[in-house]
Amino acid sequence: MLQDEVVVITGVGPGLGSRLAVRAASEGAKVVMAARSADVMKQVEKDVAAAGGEAVGVQCDVRRPEEVAVLAETAVERFGTITGLVNSAFGHPGWFDLLDTPEKAVRRSMDIILFGALNVTRAVVPHMKAAGRGSIVNVGTMTTRKPMRGEGGYAVAKAAMATATQFLALELGEHGIRANQAVMGWLDGPGVRFYLKFTAEARGMSEQDVYDEIAARNPLGRIPTDDACAGAVLFLLSRHASEVTGAVLDVNGGEYMPA
């Protein structure tokens, strides 16, 4: 699906980011990963190499343009170009009502989710223009569509990125560059497993009961896994989605169905 593509993926941690990197490499892409910590990326490099693929990790704080420049330079030096970008780096300001969320925490989320994504996009777009094509996928969240209490500070940053996605699609289309958004709901990975544990302890019930309660909200009757949801992002990156830009793809097992 991604043969001959060079894809930069930000926010490569133990959840969706690492699954995206492994799956993209398995589909034929050369993968360049970015994260503030190198631990997960080192393991992904080994996993990808063992499977016959190519991936390289670069320690990078997307808030810092100088580090982002090194990320883009590494991609081009190693693989010759950049044709794909997944902006999945995020920072969560904590589970508070919006007006109770410290302003510093909200600004940090904005700096990572919105301004960080714009930093990386600025760095890779010249290479996409030179290649004559490109695909940008921004990872959104269902809580911008179906508000969940305690997610306000996180959601406003993701909502800003959603609007930016539309403008990128409008402004970059003439260069053969597409921009879309994959909006994730609950993702059964390390973060949700932690949520299940502390919720079960707080409510005096089993983790399976908490899982079943969440899973019952959607028609598929399960919490979608990180690995399964990665496929939607890969589709938007690929040439199978060559006529798709400025679009929003909901990936949540049917819990939210836009009109």
From TrEMBL:
Which is one Pfam family of this protein?
adh_short_C2
Family label: Belongs to the short-chain dehydrogenases/reductases (SDR) family.
Spell out the PANTHER family in the cross-references: 5-KETO-D-GLUCONATE 5-REDUCTASE (PTHR43669), ALCOHOL DEHYDROGENASE, PUTATIVE (AFU_ORTHOLOGUE AFUA_3G03445)-RELATED (PTHR43669:SF3)
Q: Which UniProt keywords apply?
A: Oxidoreductase
What the entry lists under SUPFAM superfamilies is as follows: NAD(P)-binding Rossmann-fold domains
Q: What is this protein called?
A: SDR family oxidoreductase
Q: Which InterPro entries match?
A: NAD(P)-bd_dom_sf, SDR_fam
